[in-house]
Amino acid sequence: MDWFPFVLFAHVLAAMVAVGANLTYVIWIRLAGRDRTRLTFAIGGIRLLDRRLVLPSYAVLIISGLTMVITGRVAFTQLWLEIGFGLYVGLTYIAIMVFSPALRRLLAAAEADPRGDDFLREAKFTRLLFAISIGLLIAIAALMVTKPLL
């Protein structure tokens, strides 16, 4: 039995889940406005999605992607894949080492004073991280789909 279609399906599904969830984060924050209760709920929801859905999806992406390379169905020597993998590593670093702590700080600032300078500073930084993450996700998806550097 050829397992490649199932591995590829898991890979594409994980990408859809990760990107889809990430795209909702800005909407959650915008809908919450400056109301402390709504903000803490929205940020808590984002953190839950991140831990329970997005980060596991990133794990499925790397496992399924490496499986396709190891089985020889995709060659890692292709430039589009090397660049995509490098962007993925950068995105994973940002997600774990920068974004997760930023969300904790944003939640703490929202709980303290959603109209204060600390919250505004953390919200601005978090928006920047959203933009960088979405840009990296789009770049990776474009490389994986178009394979422009064959």
Describe the protein's topology.
Layout: H1 4-32, H2 36-70, H3 79-112, H4 117-146
Description:
Helices cover 85% and strands 0% of the residues. The chain is elongated and about 55 Å long. The protein has one domain (4-146). It has four helices and no strands. Helix 1 packs antiparallel against helix 2 (36-70) and helix 3 packs antiparallel against helix 4.
Keywords:
150 residues, 85% helix, single chain, mainly alpha
Brief characterization of the structure:
By secondary structure, the chain is an all-alpha fold. The chain has four helices and no strands.
Principal-axes shape call: elongated
Spatial gap, N to C terminus: 29 Å
Query: What portion of residues belong to β-strands?
Result: under 5%
Query: Count of DSSP helices?
Result: 4
Order of helices and strands: HHHH
Counting structural domains, the number is: 1
Uncertain residue ranges: none
For the secondary structure, the number of strands is 0
* Class of secondary structure makeup: mainly alpha
The largest β sheet comes out as: none
In percent, how helical is the residue content? Answer: over 70%
Provide mean pLDDT, rounded: 91
Rg from C-alpha positions? 17 Å
